[in-house]
Amino acid sequence: MAQRPLYILLLACTALLAGCPLPPHPGTPVSYLKKTEPLTDTTYYLYVPSYYSADRDWPLVVTLHGTYGWDGAWAQVMEWKHVAETHGFLVAAPRLGSVQGVLPVTSLLRSQWMKDLADDDRAILAVVDDVRAKYRVDGGDAKTGRRPAVLLTGFSAGGYPLYYTGLRHPEKFNMLIARACNSHLSLMEPVKVTEALRKTPIMIFWGKDDLKAIDDQSWQAFGWLRTHRCFETKAKKLQGGHLRRPETAYQFWMPYLPVGMRQ
């Protein structure tokens, strides 16, 4: 993938002073894999359950990390791999360039940021295709109109690429989940709202004690979606602060999985 923008490097350096420690994670029988998607040269981390078999289709979670220094693709796969092993799905966590939740999106930075979002959009979709090429990921059912069992989820500043990609390609995912996510109307206003988007289940959740910016932006995203008749969108405040909550996200996703893929 292209070099990270200067503002991302500055954020990473700044974050070393404050950091956001990862919570402890239970071990898994196998480790994650580090991959490179060849078309966009995107590095991503992949977890495949120890009992994976190509004899059946598998759900896939694509999880988008937050601001460098506080989060990253490796941290995402580490926090999701136990959930994936327990419930039986694959997890892909790509490295991104558009994720910064600290610096204001000024006119000076906006053009570069939008370019980074477009690059991440291509990378996310290419990573999904790369995983499909190597593993038996569910592809949906064209006859019934069932979408692929692929969840797109983001944490914190990962909300920016979540909304950018998810709202523009709703047919590729059977659910979008924002976990304590940033958002920005400039990502949403250019979106062509289709019937596919209106039918997409979207869950936006965050903590009651989260940052004010996350609270404001979560309600802003919810309001925009509901105003555009995306009535499958739900918003929920949970106890606690700025937490990652992969298990909670799975519980919201599970009802939308085919019955044979729930565990």
Describe this structure as you would to a colleague.
The chain is of the alpha/beta class. It has one domain: Rossmann fold. Helices cover 37% and strands 17% of the residues. It is built from 8 helices and 8 strands. It has an 8-stranded mixed β-sheet with strand order 1-2-4-3-5-6-7-8, sandwiched between helices. β3, α2 (73-87) and β4 form a beta-alpha-beta unit. The longest helix is centred in the middle third of the chain and has 28 residues, at 107-134. It is globular. The model is unreliable at 1-20 (pLDDT under 50).
Write the layout of secondary structure elements.
Elements: H1 6-18, E1 33-37, E2 42-47, E3 60-64, H2 73-87, E4 90-94, H3 107-134, E5 150-155, H4 159-168, E6 175-179, H5 185-188, H6 195-198, E7 202-207, H7 212-227, E8 233-238, H8 246-253
Parallel strand pairs: 3-4, 3-5, 5-6, 6-7, 7-8
Antiparallel strand pairs: 1-2, 2-4
Helix pairs in contact: 3-4
Strand-residue proportion: 15-25%
Helix content: 25-40%
Task: Indicate the mean pLDDT.
Answer: 90
Radius of gyration: 17 Å
Order of helices and strands: HEEEHEHEHEHHEHEH
Multimer state: single chain
CATH architecture: 3-Layer(aba) Sandwich
CATH topology, what is it called? Answer: Rossmann fold
How does the overall form come out from the CA principal axes? Answer: globular
Characteristics:
single chain; 17% strand; disordered N terminus; alpha/beta; Rossmann fold; 263 residues; 37% helix
Short description:
This protein is an alpha/beta fold. It has one domain (6-257): Rossmann fold (3-Layer(aba) Sandwich), CATH 3.40.50.1820. It has helices at 6-18, 73-87, 107-134, 159-168, 185-188, 195-198, 212-227, 246-253; strands spanning 33-37, 42-47, 60-64, 90-94, 150-155, 175-179, 202-207, 233-238.
